[in-house]
Design a protein that fits this description.
The chain is α/β, with parallel strands linked by helices. It has a domain of 281 residues: Alpha-Beta Complex (Spore Coat Polysaccharide Biosynthesis Protein SpsA, Chain A). The protein is 59% helix and 8% strand. The chain has 23 helices and 10 strands. The strands form 2 sheets. A 7-stranded mixed beta sheet has the order 3-2-1-4-8-6-9, sandwiched between helices. It has a 3-stranded mixed beta sheet with strand order 5-10-7. α3 runs parallel beside α16, α11 runs antiparallel to α13 and α14 packs parallel to α19. The chain is globular. The N and C termini lie far apart (49 Å).
Length: 556
């Protein structure tokens, strides 16, 4: 096990073994989950409804396999490696203290953002201007707002401002235009979004990694949620942090130097990006929206290494302030990821690069299958409820969430096992209460989010055009009227499903309640998780508080 965990060999037997281990876990999980579903459905004979449920489940199991495989591998790395992030980086050299000898541009991409809220944290970094220069790359189209941006930057010495007259290619076009016309003299670029946050130490570590290996074209830093007072992002990012730490570590272990790119809180080599990451248009003439994974795949195909720094300290981002913004962001990401279907067989990618695109598609592809299977199962229960064996069904409803939430649950367990890690969150009970609150939150959220994703996917498949519109990042409340207008279809769907289940038995409805009950409370869930009062209550009691928040003065 230690040989596999610590080996830094790429392209040879060790990396092939790692990927074989990953594949075995994925396949075993998929086969096991399918066998379990067959045990649930087979008694009483096969009907058309049961076959449709099984077909839908076939579309879900690949993602279940990915979740468990990355969770198992990442958890073992975090448990047994003294320095997990370094053990899966595979870049030799001093990345902690080596002198900075290169020049790096911190490229902050904005479009109709509040620049006054962005500049202060960047200026507070205190980076050496001989080696680090801040550029604000604006795609703002409103001339009045652009004038405000320019005035703000002009008042800050050492910060440069560039605005495009159009935003062709969206963010990817914005960055590439900078590389073509303003990046001469820079070795590296660190792209930052308006909601990004990084510490000086993490920025300099990324630079040292790039200096240590001239073959590295890009390094992605693991990014966690910034401290949030609003209930929705606060609860969401508490669980996301645990899951992403495990997922990123596990994925880096078997992907090696063919890793991902998330578009921000990373560093790339100017020479490599200019050479290999320039994007064209899709076959239908539209721009590539989710540019980052394509850029990473093209960098690796050109011979550049793409690595992951899987440490959570020093790299943060803000999450959407309320459920409507969260679902809107998911819909944009889904539209971008589904575009990858046009690139799967395009020339210029390695096998792992194509896999990165497949994985990004799988993240959303199964979304319509969940509400479809729920409805079919409810109809089947109403028609032939006695055919389903309760024992096997209970096993399924326990195992399924354990598998799909495996990265997050493994992340929670990893923290709870080590006193020093628990203390960063305020101790055992503080961390456990946050985890419990987040699990309830996630069960309700996922029940609501899947039908929303399904509807968004239908809009995309029927020709709706999607772009990168400006995002609302400010905390806000949601009125009952707004929530009802957006989530009445979810509520109605939930009422229909549970009416069908109740017509079979109360037991059937109770079994479904933890996983589909969010549909019935979609409207109050939206309102409460955006409520200033509920948010303040969570903050006062430090529920779901992150280490960064606990380092701040206690709220009064």
């Amino acid at each position: 096990m230690n040989v596999l965990l610590m080996s830094a060999c790429f392209g040879g037997v060790f990396m092939r073994v790692r990927r074989l281990v990953f594949l075995v876990i994925v396949v075993a999980t998929a086969v096991g989950m399918l066998a379990l579903m067959v045990c649930v459905l087979a008694p009483g004979g096969w009907s058309g409804l049961k076959l449709l449920i099984l077909v839908g489940f076939v579309g879900v199991v690949p993602w279940l396999g990915l979740c468990l495989a990355n969770a198992v591998i990442g958890y073992l790395c975090l448990l047994f490696c003294r320095d997990p992030a370094r053990s899966v980086l595979f870049v030799a050299g001093d990345i902690d203290h080596a002198p900075i000898t290169t020049r790096t541009a911190l490229a902050v991409t904005v479009r109709d953002e509040d620049l006054a809220a962005i500049l202060p944290w960047i200026l507070a970094l205190g980076l050496n201007p001989a080696h680090f220069v801040v550029w604000v790359l604006s795609d703002t189209q409103d001339p009045a707002l652009a004038s405000v941006e320019a005035s703000l930057v002009a008042a800050v010495p050492g910060v440069f401002y560039r605005r495009r007259a159009d935003n062709a290619g969206f963010k990817a076009g914005n960055v590439m235009e900078f590389l073509d016309h303003h990046a001469d003299g820079f070795d590296f670029v660190i792209p930052l979004d308006a909601d990004s946050r990084m510490t000086a130490e993490s920025i300099m570590r990324l630079v040292r990694i790039m200096q240590a290996d001239s073959r590295v074209g890009l390094v992605q830093h693991l990014t966690v949620g910034a401290p949030a007072s609003a209930a929705f992002p606060r609860l969401f990012q508490f669980g996301m942090r645990a899951g992403m730490r495990v997922w990123a570590t596990g994925q880096a272990w078997w992907q090696g130097d063919e890793g991902p790119y998330w578009g921000h809180n990373a560093i790339f080599r100017v020479e490599a990006f200019r050479q290999a990451a320039r994007l064209g248009l899709l076959p239908d003439g539209s721009p590539i929206l989710s540019h980052d994974q394509v850029e990473a795949a093209r960098l690796r195909a050109a011979g550049w290494r793409v690595c992951m720094w899987a440490a959570e300290e020093g790299s943060m981002e803000e999450n959407p302030p309320a459920l409507p913004e969260f679902l809107h962001r998911d819909a944009r990401w889904m539209a971008g990821n589904l575009q990858y279907r046009h690139l799967l067989f395009a020339p210029g990618f390695r096998a792992m690069g194509r896999w990165q695109l497949v994985q990004a598609i799988l993240l959303f592809l199964s979304a319509p299958l969940y509400p479809l299977m729920l409805l079919l199962a409810a109809i089947n229960a109403a028609v032939a409820g006695g055919d389903v064996p309760r024992g096997w069904l209970l096993v399924l409803v326990v195992v399924w969430p354990l598998v799909i939430y495996a990265p997050k649950l493994a992340g929670y367990k990893e923290v709870l096992l080590f006193r020093a890690r628990r203390e960063r969150y305020g101790g055992f009970w503080a961390f456990a209460s946050g985890a419990a609150a987040e699990i309830v939150f996630t069960l309700l959220l996922d029940a609501i989010a899947q039908p929303s994703k399904a509807m968004a996917m239908l809009r995309v498949l029927f020709g709706a055009r999607t772009g990168w519109a400006p995002q609302n990042r400010g905390e806000r409340g949601v009125t009952w009227r707004e929530a009802a207008a957006q989530f009445w279809p979810h509520t109605l769907f939930g009422v229909v499903v549970f009416a069908l289940l109740l017509s079979s038995s109360v037991w059937a409805a109770l079994v479904a309640l933890p996983f589909a009950g969010g549909l019935l409370v979609a409207v109050p869930f939206c309102v409460v998780t955006a409520s200033p009062g509920f948010s303040a209550w969570l903050v006062r009691r430090r529920i779901a508080a992150t280490p960064e928040e606990l380092a701040l003065p206690s709220p009064r």
